[in-house]
Amino acid sequence: xxxxxxxxxxAVCPLDCPDTCGxxxxxxxxxxxxxxxxxxxxxxxxxxxxxxxxxxxxxxHPERVLYPLRRVGAKGEGNFERISWEEAxxxxxxxxxxxxxxxxxxxxxxxxxxxxxxxxxxxxxxxRFFNKLGSSxxxxxxxxxxxxxxxxYTMGFGGGxxxxxxxxxxxxxxxxxxIVSTSMHMVPLIEKARKRGAKLIVIDxxxxxxxxxxxxFIPLYPGTDGALALGIMHVLFxxxxxxxxxxxxxxxxxxxxxxxxxxxxPELVSSITGVPAxxxxxxxxxxxxxxxxxxxxxxxxxHHDNGGMTVRTISCLPALTGAWLKRGGGAFKSxxxxxxxxxxxxxxxxxxxxxxxxxxxxNQLGEVLLELDPPIHALFVYCAxxxxxxxDASRVDEGLRREDLFTVVHDLFLTDTAKYADIVLPAASNxxxxxxxxxxxxxxxxxxxxxxxxxxxxxxxxxxxxxxxAAMGFEEDAFRETEEQMIRSALDYPDNPYLEGVTYDALKxxxxxxxxxxxxxxxxxxxxxxxxxxxxxxxxxxxxxxPPLPTYIPLIxxxxxxxxxxxxxxYPLMFISPPNHSFLNSTFANVKKLAxxxxxxxxxxxxxxxxxxxIADGDEVVVWNDRGEYRVRAxxxxxxxxxxxxxQGLWWENEETGKPQRSNVLTPDRLADMGGGAVFFSxxxxxxxx
Length: 690
Ligand SMILES: Nc1nc2c(c(=O)[nH]1)N[C@H]1C(S)=C(S)[C@@H](COP(=O)(O)OP(=O)(O)OC[C@H]3O[C@@H](n4cnc5c(=O)[nH]c(N)nc54)[C@H](O)[C@@H]3O)O[C@H]1N2
Ligand SMILES: Nc1nc2c(c(=O)[nH]1)N[C@H]1C(S)=C(S)[C@@H](COP(=O)(O)OP(=O)(O)OC[C@H]3O[C@@H](n4cnc5c(=O)[nH]c(N)nc54)[C@H](O)[C@@H]3O)O[C@H]1N2
Ligand code: SF4
Ligand SMILES: [Mo]
What we know:
The protein is α/β, with parallel strands linked by helices. The chain has three domains: about 250 residues, Rossmann fold (3-Layer(aba) Sandwich); about 190 residues, Dimethylsulfoxide Reductase, domain 2 (3-Layer(aba) Sandwich); about 120 residues, Barwin-like endoglucanases (Beta Barrel). It contains 27 helices and 27 strands. The strands form seven sheets. A six-stranded mixed β-sheet has the order 5-4-17-16-15-6, covered by helices on one side. The chain is globular and about 70 Å long. The chain binds ligand MGD (2 copies), iron/sulfur cluster and molybdenum atom. The site of iron/sulfur cluster (SF4) has 12 residues, from helix 1. Molybdenum atom (MO) binds next to loops.
């Protein structure tokens, strides 16, 4: 395909988005000229977002890194000279060897996330390389770690209601997410259901694009969702809207829970959440009386100090009503676990000479680079842009600026992170490489093969880490495997019955292959919690110092449960910085067409908060706390409760204006209550006119 000048070729969207769309790439004279959805994809059915319709602007962007580069100016300045791959690889290998000899292999830290969701790219040859190297291990808690952990404490498994079933729900609750922007294929599915009378409720700290479409939008104070869920439980038990036989058969601890939630009266919960008591009762009744209620648990509500407990609590709701037994009912946090692959075969942990190597959190990169003892001396960043996306960005900058830190960045662009690199390696896009993709929402696995030759001298991750392995002198066969061999071994995984029938040959022939969802009939009978039941009472939580029953725990930095700032909240406003519609995290922030749709970063502020600060709509404002400051334009709107301000989008620094515009200069690097998750939204700030 890559050598054919013209034609229409199937492809997969590589971005960190639940929908993992099937694409069609139109080629003319050897170049991709158009990207559309593939109408044959059973779930995404030909519809794609505007971001990826503009993917050619990214693939052929004039600023794509085309050659390996070596830094010539100061760190962060962004001045580089062109070098060859041979030089780059040799320099990296010799620096790594020297560092290992002087300080040990744990002085090297990989830093990666899912800028390309390809399994071979981010969970494949790279892992083999760092395992064999014996580097420090990165704990990848930046995205859904707290919430996924919370869901698992309750359900034992990282999979819930799948889209084909959700389509049959009568009530959709989108809770702490923004599906219109972040999982757009849920929308037609809900709209179709609404035509036959289904309802959409959105619960969020601000009226996002999804809230705009809701039958009922419920605003609440950040980090108080756990209390709202407990209030719903209180009403469900009190009004006998629970399913006793379901609870008896499938749950552990419903009697304890019944007693426990007596104290979460609608009045108390209203005082915590800001949701009127009568609305809490109405919401519980709608939920309890719905023939089939589906809860879409977004990622936003778990980026908090209490994010794990919040998701654990919400995911208990369907067990009270028995919604899991209704077609379309239940809950979704992530469906990634249905498509679990053979990670040992992919990552080869047995290559690691030091299985007990230290584990460091990607959410504390600044701290790790500045304080860790013994120190990190080399950082290898790929498929991630930590200077923009990681919390406490000023500390991250300070760490990246360290003269004695050897930094390599493999990316398609000179991102804010790459500007700090000693060596930049040009990355190929996924349309230039072979990989497989599973989705954390739908149930199809897809194959991508190269559609165009690599742009410039760029190389995909597999090839890059294969080259580096050779330069390090790694001789195992694992470093010589082809993509096909890696895919075959990843799919050979009898431990996951959902993977039955998904083979390399089937993928070659069909492009998208459905998981064996027949297996889901056994979902409730084969739960992987210690008790095999849905754990309303969860002993394992006591082991990590948390209450075994769902409990509202106020934020460390945020409201204290009585609408007063909590003990570490020096500032009066809660600052929420969710993703925006036109970027994918910080990806596309450098694509003019998409950046111009978003215009500029803004701060949405409630009229009452704006008034006493003398801030008018359109004013330039400074947003600050002890960690840093952020200068943006105010948008005075009443889309949230007073006391909460919103700034959407992960923007790169603006070289033209020089205005600080990374929201993460304000966010804390504390870890959430579970899973080492990030707590971006448990942030307090103040705002003034510039
Ligand atoms: N267009 C676009 N799509 C994306 C992304 C993107 O950047 N842009 N990112 C991708 C990634 S990596 C992810 S993880 C997903 C995330 O997608 P979602 O699961 O939709 O999560 P977020 O967009 O992070 O959710 C943000 C919402 O949570 C709300 N929120 C914040 N705090 C609270 C709270 O305490 N309670 C409640 N109820 N709501 C709260 C915010 O107001 C915001 O509306 O989207 C993916 N898709
Ligand atoms: N304030 C705030 N911060 C947040 C969030 C938030 O809501 N608010 N959301 C958080 C969440 S949920 C997430 S998931 C993280 C996302 O954090 P990241 O995954 O770091 O986000 P991206 O900005 O998408 O950066 C991905 C990078 O990978 C590069 N890339 C793409 N394909 C390839 C490839 O094949 N090879 C290589 N080597 N590089 C490639 C892209 O060019 C891009 O620069 O951000 C987190 N940060
Ligand atoms: S970003 Fe999401 S919606 Fe857009 S094309 Fe990719 S998978 Fe589809
Ligand atoms: Mo994410």
